[in-house]
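Case study B.
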Amino acid sequence: MALSEPSTQLLTVEGLKIHFPVTEGVLIQKQIASVKAVDGVSFELRRGETFGLVGESGCGKSTTALAILRMLNLTAGRIVFEGEDITDYDDDQMRPVRKRMQMVYQDPYGSLNPRMRVRHIIGEPLAVQGVNRRSNEYTARVDELIDLVGLLPDMADRYPHEFSGGQRQRIGIARALALAPSLLICDEPVSALDVSIQAQVINLLMDLQVELGLTILFIAHDLSIVRHISDRIGVMYLGRIVEIASQDELFDHPKHPYTQALLNAVPVPDPVIEAGREEQLIQGEVPSVRNPPQGCHFHPRCPVAASVCRQQEPALLPSTSASLVSCHLVHSGEHKSGHGRSLRAG
Amino acid sequence: MGDRLLEVEDLSVTFRTDRGIVRAVDSVSLHVDRGETLAIVGESGSGKSVTALSILGLIGDADSGRIEHGRISFEGQDLIAQPDRVLRKIRGNRIAMIFQEPMSSLNPVLTIGKQVAEPIRLHRGASWAEAYQQAGELLKKVAIPDAVERLNDFPHHFSGGMRQRVMIAMALACQPKLIIADEPTTALDVTVQAQILSLLKELTREADSALILITHDLGVVARYADRVTVMYAGRIAETASARELYANPQHPYTQGLMESIPSLSGTVGSRLITINGQPPDLANLPTGCAFAPRCKYARDLCSRAAPILESVGDDHERACYGFE
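Model:
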C-alpha cells in the first residue's frame, strides 16, 4: 500500500486552495479579507476505493467536492482526473469530464425538481449530453437505472413529492449514475434521512460500487457511517487535512490530536462501553475560517500544543505505511498515537 | 428510585390537518423519577416532540392540536386540567425546555443578559439588578468566557454552541425540577455536542433535576440516559433501562434500529441489516400495530389490534404480541 502506481490513481488533488473574497462597500467593492475555506489540501483517490472525508461543519469538505467538479475556481493547486489536468478547464472543456464524475447531494428534497417526472429527472444528464428524450436508448437507460437503485418501474412517471426521503435519495443516485461515471461524489448522502432508512441507502451505495466498479468520495460528519463504508479516510479541520489513514488504522490508532478528540467525542451506541469510557473533551469551538489561527490550525484547542505549533504550519507527512499525519509532535515522536481500545467491547 | 416526579398516563394528542385528523401521540404512558435522565428515542413523526410539548401545556390554541385524553401529573399536580395562568407559573420555573435550534429560539433583538434574567425576574420576583447578577453567574456556570461582559451582547454575537449554552443557562435559571431537552445538539458539531451534553448532565445532577432527552441518536442515548423510551408512529414501542434496552431489545423495531446503525466497533464493509419499508404516514396509519407492515415477525393478529404495553421484565415493557 506504500507507493501506488500512477495508473491506479483516478484523481489527484494537490495543494488545493479555495479562498472566497470578503468585500465591503456597496458601489465600490473593496476586498477586506478572505475566507480560506480550503487551504492547502492534497489527497488522491485510487480506482475502486471509497475515500471518506470527515470533519465538522465549515471544515471545507463540501467546498473540496465542488472544486473537484470544477464548479468553483481554484485559488491555487492542481486537480488531475483520469490522467487529465482539469485545473484550468472552462465550462465547455468540463462538460465531457463531468460525464465521468457525478454528485449525490445531501438534501433529497431540495435537489430534485418538483415539477419534473422522475423519468426526466433521472434522464436529464442524458438529455444534457445530447440523447434524444424520445429515443429508445433514453427510455431503456432510465428504466435500467430505476431498477438498479431498487425503485419500481411504475414509479418513473410520478413526481418527487410522492416519494419518501429514502426513495428520493435513490432517485438522486440513479441520476448521478445515468452517464456511467467512474467517480461518484456523495456529499452527506444520508444525513437527512431517518436512521432506519440510512442503512438502506448505505447498502445500495456499497452494492453499486461493487457492481459498477465505482470510485466513491464519501463526505460525511457521521464517523460510524464513514468507518463502515470507507477504505481510506481523510480528516479535515479548518480547511486542511490533518490525517489520512486506512480505515482500520484511523480508528485503531488515531494519531492526530484532533482525530483522537473527534473519536472520543462520538458516543458509541452501547451503554456498557460508554460507562467504561473516560470522557476527554476538547475545549472551545472551531474558530472562524475568516481568521484562522497561525501555525497549526488546531493549536488553540489542542491539549498537547507546543510553541512550534503556534508558529509553523505542520506538513502532511507519512507516519506509518498506512497513514499520513499533519502534526509537529507526531513527527517528532512526542505525541503518541491513541488507541481505539476504548471503542471496543472487551 | 421510585420517587416519581412526572407521570404521563394514556396521553393522546391529535392535530387537525388538511388530510384529516392526525393522531400524533397515541395512548402514551411514561414516568420520570427525580434526578434521572429519560431518553425518548424515535424517528421524525414518532411523536416524541409532541409528547414533550404536551407536558409543558403547549398543545392547543394556535396549532389546531388537542389533547384528546390522558393525565399528566407533575409533583402530584395534574397539569392537563390547569388554566394557562397556572401553567405559566410552572413553565420556565419548575419545568424548563431546551429547544433544538439555538439560532431561532433566542430573541434576536434582546440582549443575552435580558433573556437569561427574564425568567428569574418573572418567577422569583427579583429586581432587574439582582436578576442580571444571577444571569452572570449562570453564564459562568455554563462556561461562557467573560460571562459578565457578555450579558450585553446580542445572540448574533454568539456561535451555535455558545447559544446552546445560553439556552441551558436560561433553562437552569429557576432551578427547575425537570428539564426537557428536545434534540439539544443536532444542530451542533460532535466535539461541541459532547461538551454541551456533558455540561447539561453535570448541571442537572448538581441541581438534582430530572432530564428528558429527546433524540434520534442511539449513541447519545447510550452515553447519557438512565432509561429509554422508544416511540414509533405516536406510540411507545418499548421502555427499559438503557443497559437492558441495548443488551436485550424486545421490540422488533428496537432490534431493527440497533442492527441498522453501523457501530464504531462493528464489522466493516458488511451489509447493514435494514428495516424494510418506510416510516408510516400518520394520516393514514394501518390498523393494528403501526410497525407490522415493516416487521419480519408480523402475524395476522398484529394487523387486527394494536398491542398494548406489557411488562417483559424488571422495569422493561414492550408493545408487541411476541415472536419467536
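The longest strand of chain B covers residues 4-17. The remaining cases will be described in the next quarterly update.
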